[in-house]
């Protein structure tokens, strides 16, 4: 299955309006069920290659406990999601002049008891992450399993976003957010739309 453009079911005008108004947007039922199924399979079959995200250069961070696997050409099904985000980045560049040039992404696995405490993906514009996205992979999720994304929008309002299957969350990388403690294995793709010479001005 190849994605060469944004899915026709997406309301891109609504996405742009939500980003401009509150700094985040949600898209549900992003892909056909068959693609999500194959993506879950690709993720699950590579779980042994995941590494602890909280360990960087031998230093342990205590604000997160999830495990990740960076996505490259060896993960062709996930690469199709990256292609979709690259097309989305073109729309963002046209609307907000962000100058996004690339997408980086990894699979993320939150096992039972794992979390990611409050943080920003681009604190004080210290890196080139402009837009953050999270796509939820698991085929079902119950409310009492936790794992929600808690996000403060650009108007300082807080939102709790359940990790619903086949949902894409899009938000400014400088917004404060966290992943609440998960009680079941929670699978997703986290991706950043990056620019080396722009700052958000939406």
Structure characterization notes:
The protein is of the alpha+beta class and about 200 residues long. It has a single domain, classed as Jelly Rolls (Sandwich). The protein is about 20% helix and about 30% strand. The chain has 3 helices and 13 strands. It has helices at about 10-20, 35-45, 75-95, and strands at about 25, 50, 55, 60, 65-70, 100-110, 115-120, 130-135, 150, 160, 170, 175-180, 185-195. It has a 7-stranded antiparallel beta sheet. It is globular, with a radius of gyration of 16 Å. The protein starts with 11 loop residues before the first helix and ends in an 8-residue tail after the last strand. Mean pLDDT is about 90; it is low at about 195-200.
Question: In terms of per-residue confidence, which ranges show pLDDT below 50 for 5 or more consecutive residues?
Answer: 197-202
Q: Per CATH, what is the topology?
A: Jelly Rolls
Oligomer: single chain
Radius of gyration: 16 Å
Assess the beta-strand content as a share of residues: 25-35%
* Proportion of residues in helical segments: 10-25%
CATH architecture: Sandwich
Number of strands: 13
Strand order of the largest sheet: 1-11-8-13-6-5-2
Integer count of domains: 1
Count of DSSP H/I helices? 3
Q: How far apart are the first and last residues' alpha carbons, in Å?
A: 34 Å
Main β-sheet description: 7 strands, antiparallel
What is the CATH class designation?
Mainly Beta
User: Helix-strand pattern, N to C?
Assistant: HEHEEEEHEEEEEEEE
The dominant shape is globular
CATH superfamily: q2cbj1_9rhob like domain
Instruction: Label the structural class.
Output: alpha+beta
Mean pLDDT over the residues:
91
Domain Fe2OG dioxygenase: 101-195
GO molecular function: ferrous iron binding; L-ascorbic acid binding; peptidyl-proline dioxygenase activity
Protein name: 2OG-Fe(II) oxygenase
Keywords: Dioxygenase, Iron, Metal-binding, Oxidoreductase, Vitamin C
């Amino acid at each position: 299955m190849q994605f060469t453009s944004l899915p026709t079911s997406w309301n891109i005008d609504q996405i742009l309006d939500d980003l401009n108004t509150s700094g985040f947007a949600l898209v549900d039922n992003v892909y056909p069920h068959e693609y999500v199924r194959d993506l879950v399979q690709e993720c699950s079959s590579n779980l042994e290659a995941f590494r602890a995200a909280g360990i960087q250069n031998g230093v342990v961070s205590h604000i997160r406990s999830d495990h990740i696997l960076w996505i490259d050409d060896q993960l062709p099904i996930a690469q199709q999601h990256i292609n979709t985000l690259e097309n989305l980045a073109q729309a963002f560049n046209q609307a907000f002049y962000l100058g996004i040039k690339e997408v980086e992404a990894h699979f993320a696995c939150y096992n039972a008891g794992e979390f990611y405490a409050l943080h920003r993906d681009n604190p004080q514009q210290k890196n080139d992450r402009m837009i953050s996205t999270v796509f939820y992979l698991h085929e079902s999720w119950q409310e009492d399993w936790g794992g929600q994304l808690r996000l403060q929008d650009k108007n300082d309002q807080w939102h709790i976003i359940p990790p619903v299957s086949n949902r894409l969350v899009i938000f400014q990388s400088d917004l404060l957010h966290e992943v609440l403690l998960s009680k079941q294995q929670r699978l997703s793709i986290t991706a950043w739309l990056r620019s080396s010479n722009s700052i958000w001005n939406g």
